Amino acid sequence: MGIEVTGLLGLIWLIIVIWAVVKVAQSSAGSLAKLLWILVLLFFPLVGLIIWFLLGPKG
């Protein structure tokens, strides 16, 4: 893969993680739950996103 493709995929991944963090922050979950979800998303981006999609706060 060229450096441009890798950079584009990295940018898309960053946008997805930021979107997930914003959705968590806007959710109706408690403050501690929001903080824990955001930390999981930031420190374990791939696994965190998968777990968040499956088990995260809805709404």
Q: How would you sum up this structure, described in words?
A:
With 59 residues, this protein is mainly α. The chain is 81% helix and 0% strand. The chain has three helices and no strands. Helix 2 packs antiparallel against helix 3.
Average residue pLDDT: 87
| Sheet/helix structural class | mainly alpha
Give, in order, the helices and strands. HHH
- What is Rg? 13 Å
Q: How many beta-strand runs?
A: 0
Share of residues in helices = over 70%
Strand content: under 5%
User: What overall geometry do the principal axes of the alpha carbons give?
Assistant: elongated
Low-confidence stretches: none
End-to-end Cα distance, whole Å, is: 38 Å
User: Largest sheet at a glance?
Assistant: none
So how many helices?
3
Q: What's a quick, concise take on this entry?
A:
Helix content is 81%, strand content 0%.
Task: Give structural attributes.
single chain; mainly alpha; 3 helices; CLS_N
Topology at a glance:
Blueprint: H1 3-26, H2 31-43, H3 45-55
